[in-house]
Specification:
The structure holds 2 protein chains of 2 kinds.
Chain A: E1 12-22, E2 27-36, E3 39-44, E4 56-60, E5 65-68, E6 70-75, H1 88-97, E7 100-105, H2 116-129, E8 133-136, E9 138-139, H3 152-157, E10 163-164, H4 173-183, E11 190-192, E12 204-205, H5 208-213, E13 217-218, H6 221-237, E14 241-243, H7 249-260, E15 265-269, H8 271-275, H9 297-308, E16 314-315, H10 324-327, H11 344-353, H12 359-366, H13 368-374, E17 389-399, E18 418-428, E19 431-435
Parallel strand pairs in A: 1-4, 1-5, 6-7, 7-8, 9-10, 10-11, 11-14, 12-13, 14-15, 15-16
Antiparallel strand pairs in A: 1-2, 2-3, 5-17, 17-18, 18-19
Helix pairs in contact in A: 4-6, 6-7, 7-9
Chain B: H1 3-10, H2 14-19, H3 36-54, E1 67-72, H4 78-89, E2 93-98, H5 101-106, H6 110-118, E3 124-129, H7 134-139, E4 145-151, H8 157-171, E5 178-182, H9 189-200, E6 204-208, E7 224-226, H10 229-233, E8 238-241, H11 257-264, H12 268-271, E9 279-281, H13 294-297, H14 305-326
The chains are: A alpha/beta, B alpha/beta.
Organism (chain B): Rhodovibrio sodomensis
Subunit structure (chain B): Heterododecamer (2C3:3R2) of six catalytic PyrB chains organized as two trimers (C3), and six regulatory PyrI chains organized as three dimers (R2).
Protein name (chain B): Aspartate carbamoyltransferase
Amino acid sequence: MSLHAKPAGTAKVAYTNARLLDPASGLDARGGVLVDGNRIVEVGAGLFRDGVPPDAQEVDCAGLCLAPGLVDMRAQLGEPGREHKETISSAGRAAASAGITSIACLPNTDPVIDDVAGLEFVARRARETKLVKVYAYGALTRGCAGEQMTEIGLLSEAGAVGFTDGDRAVANAQTLRRCLAYASVFDTVILQHPLEPTLATGVMNGGALATRLGLSGSPAMAELIQLERDLRLVEMTGGRYHASLISTGAAVEAIRQAKANGLRVTCDTAPHYFTLTEDAVGDYRTFAKVNPPLRGAADRQAIVAGLADGTIDAVVSDHNPQDQDSKRLPFTAAEYGIAGLETLFALSLDLVHAGQLELLDLLAGLTYKPADILGRDAGRLAAGGPADMILFDPERAWTIDPDSFLGKCKNAPFDAWPARGRVVRTVVDGRTIYAETPAPAAA
Amino acid sequence: MSPADRALQDIPTRAAAESGSGAPLRHLLGIEGMTAAEIVALLDRAESYVAVNQAANKTSDLLAGRTVINLFFETSTRTRTSFELAGKRLGADVINMEVAWSSIKKGETLIDTAMTLNAMHPDVLVVRAPDSGAVQLLAEKVNCAVINAGDGSHEHPTQALLDALTIRRRRGEIAGLKVAISGDVAHSRVARSNIHLLTTLGAEVRVIAPPTLLPSGIERLGVTAYTNMRAGLADCDVVMMLRLQTERMQGSYVPSIREYFRFYGLDYDKLAHAKADALIMHPGPMNRGVEIDSVVADDIDRSAIREQVEMGVAVRMGVLDALTRQAPTRATTGDLDGSIGA
């Protein structure tokens, strides 16, 4: 931080006339926030009743919602190795425009981030970009190959927020057992993409639709089988475990039970799993090819229920940018993934508008809960905390147009999707990194 | 209704997108979504070519000046030859292209290939590809008619049509027949196309296979699944055998060829459970002694296998005829010719 001097003359900013939303404290009230430099100084309902401090610049929020900046704990940012699909800079602009102030990026890059130098590269690129905060996971095993444990302690010291092999499950039980046990010394979290790799060999959800299309199917059970085994290992080791991208109702139930039994287990899902079903694959639509695959209607409803009762802790973008060359292919040959940063918040808000989730509960899964899993000081409107905030209009109707994404890739199956709720300003460490202008700003 | 539900409803299904009854057939990508009337119309047209193929002079000039490209990304002898003959007998210029799928994966993409061929203004592309959905993807990028000659494990519509024509000629009517499709259903595009066609025309369709070769949810296509071959064959009018597709199999589906033949190979013993005059069919190429006993396959009284090959040419002539009649004329297709068109 010492490399960057405070911006001159902008020490204090008073955000007035806002609907304050802080899920961590349960606050939902009219009021204001006073920011000094990169920190929040005061938050409160009656904060500026007697006027804005004379030395503060005023931002009138005009009754819009002021909330903690979103924390996206699962995204692929293209660097290093796939800069033609995304860079930390392009992803940063995309994230900022959608209210995301912190991103945790996956280590399954090229080369894999499995040493301190890799972490430092990401940190340096993020500093240079100076947009959103970028946290990095370290690979759990070298090369994400599922065999040899990485230097979990050294990587943790260097800033790794958790450990995962990205989109691969660690299949070897002994390896995962040792990783969970060893990592507990550093109280870091291990994230697993829970799909039993020898069962999950298909390119879409197993069932009648895959059969009709003549595509190989991955059974929903592949998720539960991997998860149940992992939960036993958590029980054995006392490790801290996070299941990524829960897509089935059976897995939600298994996590629910594990939490009830006191295991240190958390999980997340992404908007496509509570928004779409396998029907989105329709006629070999490769934009709907994701891993784990989109499931059936009952699974989708179970994911919504899991979010509503708090079994699912976090909502992630699962941002996985793919260019046309990777998607305009026969379904089996096409890459997995959806470019998710710019639709994370809008798609999630659909649940609130449909009455399935309270706004504060949704925000919890997008702010302090993922921050807590990663052990970061983020996701709260709290005095003394970093001034990472968003201002949004929950009612503003707009239409999703992937072609207008700021990120490099436009692979999203949400073309012409009617969205409601839009971010108008994004603030990171007190700096406004995105503000909606009357005419949309050119990238 | 939440936006999610609304959008889900908006996603077009294959059937909705292509069935459009009354609209002329632009491509033949699959049987699924076709109406009974459309199928019968194609069968009737094919029927008219059966006699042509049996005559001494088999050629006409119906497609004179038209270009048909057989684009095969998988090796094929009988289907490619059948399409080639069909095109030539209708007077078209027929070009055969065999391209290795591996080169599509690493070099020029499928879409590049489609665009390249499209620029040469063919009238019909006949395409076979090892990936399900690949022919449809290609069809979206060209402005000529496309015939699916088999895509992965998805569809093989002309095979289903020739099977139906064979059955219709032998039995007169498809509605009401009990048809057993037996063998490697999981990997078979022939099975899927036949299931769609036969159920649409009112036959009762059963599939017979070991559980490892029955794809999940197959019943949702309107068939009854059997894992016991004798039970599945009981009282059937038609027995369609499928080739065991070892090339599409990763991992162990059946323990051995010998065991497979013992329980799922068609021999007289198992055949005895079907109707006494049950018709035996196989799309070829046959693995004799794997899914079908040689003697059964060659049984002149029961086997329609050679007739299927004969009907194949007639069906492909009928399909080429139907697609080119209804396609816009050359003058109104590609951009280069736009000035000539109306």
